[in-house]
Amino acid sequence: MPPRFASDASSALPLHVIAEDGLDAWLSDQPEAAQTWIAAQGFTGGLGQALTIPAADGSVMMAVAGFGTAAARARGRFHLAAAAAKLPKGIYQIVSGLPDDQKSVEALGWLLSRHSFDRYKSQSPIAAELLAPEAVNVAEVEALAAGECMTRDLINTPASDMGPPDLEQAARDLAKAHGAQINVITGDDLLKQNLPMIHTVGRAADRAPRLIDMRWGDSGPTLTLVGKGVCFDTGGLNLKPGASMGLMKKDMGGAAAVLGLAHMIMATGKQVQLRVLVPAVENAVSGNAFRPQDILTSRKGLTVEINNTDAEGRLVLADALALADEEKPDQIISMATLTGAARVAVGPDLAPYFSDDAGFVTALESAAAAQADPVWRLPFHDPYEAMIEPGIADLDNAPKGGFAGCITAALFLRRFVSDSPYAHFDIYGWQPAAAPARPKGGVGQATRALFGALDEILTR
């Protein structure tokens, strides 16, 4: 179940959020016994500190959580989640110290910290519950938490239980929950429907490739989300080494992200006509796997020389993007765990994105800051277009040399969108080490930022 705010205010304990430079002033208004207890416990207001304070009869009177310094807070996010993990079981109500502009994001972090991936083994999420702070949009924050948790669970599920049919079922469950329409094109029908590159990449696997197409909403601007759904990536005939294959259950992270974002949009009833396209495949090895030097013809008619079968994500996205572009929506957004080059460029914590639209950039980066969902803009650098033109075909799926790999991949994808505003996100989708509200494992990136920016993006 997605995490929710507590509803029983009658048993809530008051929680004071205290920054380091505000501790002395706060203590001056407290009983002497409380001052003595806090000093004895070494509480300084540092980030992540948490403490319950007893009443004279030994019961818990209140709790305090450290909010550190501005410099310390700038080095992370979801600070109250770190404190929540140290509080005993109970319901807490923030009564002082948390700035109004931090209430929503800190409440979201608290909710996220209460979710754990327990499909295969019982887990123990934090027991401390939170009453929704005043002025927080409860429905929206809970929808953001639910969408993020959906994304995490989809990514964390191994390919044995999250192949193309399972990803389809997850999309069908989401569509049913929100009254959306869904259509799925599977196997050889992809060829009949002119989606040849999705078929080519997925044909070697036992579980058939497919294109998932979900629609919701009948009024407002048109938005199409396209998510890479490579449920496992062996690299194909250009087989990955074992060390590089270890995390490839997460290669459907783009699909997981757009499904999570779709939940956020539908659960909050945004006035938008939403379409979600997910090419769901496995990049497997068998006698009919596609080969290096093959030349494929895409839905758009562009030919693609295959110089590395491990650069398959852009192939399946290309057909889906061409399909999306045919309707000329107000905005197309693709999300994919696409290149290692993006990780080298900005590491695992930032979501690099590509857009030539100044209005999109301004709206997104403002929302990213507000949502504690960091993004970083990279360029559609036109002079690199020559790098994806092999001569023998229109496009090269894996330019030699490795320079600017995430940029050339984004330029490749842009070739398949001619008539619609387009932005691309090259996400990692994985938290390599536990952090407040983000356990090690699958994680959503840029989805909350996009949610926060959508109204401005779609009406600019």
From TrEMBL:
<dbReference type="GO" id="GO:0005737">
    <property type="term" value="C:cytoplasm"/>
</dbReference>
<dbReference type="GO" id="GO:0006508">
    <property type="term" value="P:proteolysis"/>
</dbReference>
<keyword id="KW-0645">Protease</keyword>
<dbReference type="Pfam" id="PF21337">
    <property type="entry name" value="Peptidase_M17_N_1"/>
</dbReference>
<keyword id="KW-0464">Manganese</keyword>
<keyword id="KW-0031">Aminopeptidase</keyword>
<protein>
    <submittedName>
        <fullName>Cytochrome C oxidase subunit II</fullName>
    </submittedName>
</protein>
<dbReference type="Pfam" id="PF00883">
    <property type="entry name" value="Peptidase_M17"/>
</dbReference>
<dbReference type="GO" id="GO:0030145">
    <property type="term" value="F:manganese ion binding"/>
</dbReference>
<dbReference type="InterPro" id="IPR048816">
    <property type="entry name" value="Peptidase_M17_N_1"/>
</dbReference>
<comment type="similarity">
    <text>Belongs to the peptidase M17 family.</text>
</comment>
<dbReference type="InterPro" id="IPR043472">
    <property type="entry name" value="Macro_dom-like"/>
</dbReference>
<keyword id="KW-0378">Hydrolase</keyword>
<dbReference type="GO" id="GO:0070006">
    <property type="term" value="F:metalloaminopeptidase activity"/>
</dbReference>
<dbReference type="InterPro" id="IPR000819">
    <property type="entry name" value="Peptidase_M17_C"/>
</dbReference>
<dbReference type="InterPro" id="IPR011356">
    <property type="entry name" value="Leucine_aapep/pepB"/>
</dbReference>
<feature type="domain" description="Cytosol aminopeptidase">
    <location>
        <begin position="308"/>
        <end position="315"/>
    </location>
</feature>
